[in-house]
């Protein structure tokens, strides 16, 4: 149910994750008397009650696993209302912003709340996230979701244009995160939001021109340690790979066996095998080189966005 | 209004940062620090605010004002400036290296040295104003011994190791960040950690617990001294360290009768040398010496003359400490055996598969496991085994690629050098065995 702590069994009102297969996860709010249609047939919600998280549930045409929600799973299956940030970038953002329990953070815009969940997980219970979204419906949806996920106490969602009206926070936050089309327009306001003793800022932008303007503004406003980076994940698959061994020497030359001293034992035994084998069966698997291979995915996302980080010390 | 906890205090570990270079240092009165080829006394740092910038003048620290720092930081940039008449810049300098070194040893300030350099440069006047600014900036960087003093954070500590990643199993910030997120470590979590990264992973996890929950370092039952040096860098409070435990892997037994483990038959002779809780005493900081170009001299004489009667008391204290440690070990083992763990993190130089096989038996279902290895092959084995045994779902095997960029007006490009590897990561979620 909740993103704020683990619980062991499912209750009504919980948000559970249905694990159908690799990278195929669906969120479900468990409600009395309702039925959910899965690709394996009907799943009456009531059958989930009291089940341990992580257990397998039998459906008419197969089984699924019910999982406890985590921000990483949520990122995989949340309803997209905007482009979202994924876990590789999110991890880096949380780490580079020095977030930990107790940190206060300002974020704009909220978007689909993908990053917000990971931030809240890290800063609760004493920290707080102030997140801003100027799109009315997204603002409302995000607010509802945080409450449903029982993390509403740790976040304040504000419906506002931060570029036009600013964050309206003074010396309050340890870190600011920006995922906006024109981040440079609110950096002055972000600076005011950061605590007097200093803090961190991150801006995520897909285009290099945005990064350039952002860095210029950051420098102008006295931010230091400005770094820009790009982070990509390469997924690896393990497969049993087979490569054919080919014959490297002429097999019929009998004179070759004459000089026994020049042969290594290994070579001798190999040759014995080849000589004993029927020509037709020589393509058996013993002649193949088989091994477990780590194979990267054939295609992968080659760009998400540039992450720009900066510090401001006492200001 | 500076906050009290933002003040540098005696005994604190601090980070000296200058451009890309970070060094950790423990503040002690009259201690000499050696950073970026300059020696100075750290006395003046006590009572200053974290985030302050200093320059070194004849071995003394001078605090720089905020405006002065900004002025020195500003980059003059004008790309593609005309430099067709410029020859190899070093040969245009009449001053030789020895001259500069002499000025330094005479205690001349960085500003004065730069002045001299400009005066003795044949080409300075013929440079475009852009090149002049660039020249000045370069020289300032080199000769003004400026650095900022910061409170250690996981991010800064990672920077210390960026030039010697072998010491932390080639972990990179992007990998560490993923270990912390994919393990779902949060306030109050119970986390088992197998690591040989000098305590770096343990410290990062402890920081994310916010003084609640438990970090249990699972250690091999060998006599090797376990180094958890890096934990000291984080200035963890006694309160935070109370949530740190360690337990030898051999003490963990899988329950067979389904009853709760109350008392455990932990062999009390199981003693792990060097496996004491982190303490701030100077004598227990051996690894700090492993950092390059450090010449901090401590008063060695102080340590050596301990009175004999003090020795007796010391012995008693050790006995109490040993018992305390034993109790904590048992508590940690009981927690694990009662399946109260929330996350398992493995990032070590041990062969991971046997460790994975043993430890995942203690995890409840729907919990996160993260296995890091600097090599790909051992994780291929783990991946295959986990898949075959169906002990988990959403099994993900990955590596990350991370590239830094130089961003300057019209001179934006990837940084010339980048890290070739940050190791490999295996993550999955436990499930209950199909009944
Ligand atoms: C790409 S989305 C953010 C996605 C989010 N980081 C996530 O992980 O789900 C950008 C959001 O910023 C909002 N936005 C854009 N400009 C804004 C502004 N000036 N003030 C507030 N929100 C703004 C947009 O409505 C959009 O929802």
Written account of the structure:
The complex is a heterodimer of chains A (315) and B (435). Chain A is 24% helix and 31% strand. Chain A has 315 residues and is an alpha/beta fold. An 8-stranded mixed β-sheet of chain A has the order 9-8-7-10-11-14-12-13, with helices on both faces. In chain A, a hairpin with a 2-residue loop joins strand 1 and strand 2. In chain A, helix 1 (71-77) packs antiparallel against helix 3 and helix 2 crosses helix 3. The two termini of chain A are 42 Å apart. Residues 256-260 and 266-282 of chain A have low confidence and may be disordered. Chain B has 435 residues and is of the alpha/beta class. Chain B has 13 helices and 15 strands. In chain B, the strands form 3 sheets. Chain B has an 8-stranded mixed β-sheet with strand order 10-9-8-11-12-15-13-14, sandwiched between helices. Chain B has a 5-stranded antiparallel β-sheet with strand order 2-1-7-5-6, with helices on one face. In chain B, strand 13 and strand 14 (413-414) form a beta hairpin. In chain B, helix 3 runs antiparallel to helix 4. Residues 75-80 and 261-303 of chain B have low confidence and may be disordered. The chains are: A alpha/beta (315), B alpha/beta (435). At the A-B interface, strand 6, helix 1, helix 2, helix 3 and helix 7 of A face helix 1, helix 6, helix 7, helix 13 and strand 13 of B. Bound molecules: S-adenosylmethionine. Chain A: It catalyses: an adenosine in mRNA + S-adenosyl-L-methionine = an N(1)-methyladenosine in mRNA + S-adenosyl-L-homocysteine + H(+); adenosine(58) in tRNA + S-adenosyl-L-methionine = N(1)-methyladenosine(58) in tRNA + S-adenosyl-L-homocysteine + H(+). Chain A: Pfam families: GCD14 (PF08704). Chain A: S-adenosyl-L-methionine binds at residues 112-115, 133, 161, 179.
